[in-house]
Amino acid sequence: MKKKLFKFLKIIASLLCLLILLITIGIFWPMPTLQPPLKHDTVIIESINIIDVKSGHILEKRNVLIKGNTISAIDSIEILNRDPNSLIIDGTDKYLVPGFWDMHTHSNQHSEWLHHPLYIANGVTGIRDMSGQLDRRDSYWAGSKERLVWNAELNENKRVMPRYVLQSSYQIDGAASVPDGFPEFFKLQKPEHIDSLLLFYKNEKVDFIKVYQQIIPESYQQLAKKAPKYGLHLAGHKPVFTSLEEAILLGQRSFEHGRVFMFESFPGADSLRTATDWKSFYSKSKKSMIDDFDPVKAKRLMTLMSKHDAHWVPTLQTLKFEAYAHETTFTENPHLKYITGVRKKLWWNIDRSNNAKRNTAASTKGVSKDFYEASKKQVQMANQLGVPIMTGTDVTDSYTFAGFSIHQELEELTKSGLSNLEAIQSATIIPAKYSKKEHKYGSIQEGKIADLLILNQNPLMDITHTKDINGVLMNGIYYDTDKINELKKFTESVASSYHMNVKVFFSLINSPLIRVQFAD
């Protein structure tokens, strides 16, 4: 008996050793690298149709000269004195638009392999990241230090990646969002914490403070008043316990997600702001937010947003997922091959299952779909009243796909009442102006950076033509069709690899920030 037990324990010990070895190999296995295409001193795009995103006019059969990473000349006649070593791109019957910006994403330590290639392959040349770190490097989330290094390496042509146009703090969400062992000032529970937090993020070269839902009103008010003194602004969720009107008047520059006006325009709005368990109250109130929606109040708030130049990023993809999580026609997405198995099993499948149960339960059947449709109508209202709308997808949320989802979001915006031109503006010139970078980005003009997208068909005629990509120029470097396919295959291969899944798993479980977010 003892011999059998000893033999059994020996087998178990051997299996454990093997498991530890396999995990160690997965963690330390070197990652593949992507090489950007060859950089040419000059690039000439010949006879291409340029879409003026400001007016909607098309400048037909133009020649575009790019020197380094800058648009040097745009002309209707042949560009003379060309360098014989120039890269020549035939633009005949094609259309040139500025590279798209996704103004709501979440990068992590694996974005180099899982996100960046797909952004470029889909013509997304700029992103505003809405996540960050506290006072130390996180195993999962990326922070401003990493992103600024990435940007520098992009400019040196060492990375395949979009430009990180604005840097975010960690989400500021009250005491519960800060893990043990981190400085108390991140919790914003005392008046003196405000300056400490703002000074910290100023030194981290952050551009804005990402505010979240549960920040207490007193802290939010002081944060909003003091942030400009540090060269920072507020962006993110509308805090639950503060009215949208007050948040606008306090200067929050952008509001995220499609439920912003739903929270404020139903009879229980005041009760929601004072509820002890606001999440439960919100869940029970969703039907009322739809059925008892007050368009007069919503339009007053939209007009106020327009007056104060407060931007809205509806991220309609997130609501669409909640609405259709029970339908296989939605969930059997071909782009799932670009997502690691760990993320699908530990995050997306759980999220999908929970939403599917709500969508099929007798008491909540159809509510999420009605909520989604109502939010689209509000996008139309807001656009008509002059609220500046920006395109955002909320990568890495469930069923949002880096790069691919920007085209779906553009389509959803047109289904919500925006014209094709207005949808394109929401991903180009409007984000550039919001970021105060319109002198370099957002439209095709001499002197601007050559972050460009070559399309086979005119997106002003059909917004789905944004997906028909012939080539991408990122910082003046040309990605042709073959290179675009290589980028997609690269991420597909990495996402399915054993070692990447091990890395993702251990970065998730070792992240104190992820642990508190999931606990919440």
TrEMBL record:
Q: Which keywords annotate this record? A: Hydrolase
Domain Amidohydrolase-related residues, every copy: 381-476
List the InterPro entries hit by this protein, alphabetically.
Answer: Amidohydro-rel, Metal-dep_hydrolase_composite, Metal_Hydrolase, Metallo-dep_Hydrolase
| UniProt keyword Ion transport, yes or no | no
Q: Which domain of life is it from?
A: Bacteria
Q: Name one Pfam family in it.
A: Amidohydro_1
Q: Which GO terms describe its molecular function?
A: hydrolase activity, acting on carbon-nitrogen (but not peptide) bonds
Q: What protein am I looking at?
A: Amidohydrolase family protein
Q: Which organism is it from?
A: Dokdonia pacifica
